[in-house]
Amino acid sequence: MKRPRPERTVAGEPIPDLITPADEQAVAAGRTPVRIRLVVTAEGVELVADSPDPQALDRLLAKAGLESVEVVLCG
User: Which of 15, 22, 7 is closest to 37 using CA atoms?
Assistant: First the structure.
């Protein structure tokens, strides 16, 4: 049985776990899921992304041309 991931936080705010059990099954089937959540704030757009494959997520974010990227390593 897989252990649940601990709650992750940045500046005291919880970061949601975007990966679902279906995504874990996709990995077992050889696919690489990436989940993204966009939130519009007064400061701009916040992008929260999660993937079981951090390199796939890094490649995607590199192509996005983002002004800045804050990385939180969890797992």
Answer: 15
H-run or E-run covering 63? helix 54-63
Q: Can you tell me the distance from the alpha carbon of 27 to that of 48, in angstroms, rounded to the nearest whole number? A: 20
Q: Where are the domains of the chain?
A: 31-66
**Tokens of residue 44, six digits:** 């701009």
CB 25 within 8 A of CB 13: no
Residues 26-71 have pLDDT tens digits of 888 889 899 988 888 888 888 888 888 888 888 888 898 877 777 7
Residue whose C-alpha is closest to residue 2's, from 24, 23, 35: 24
Q: What is the pTM of this model?
A: 0.66
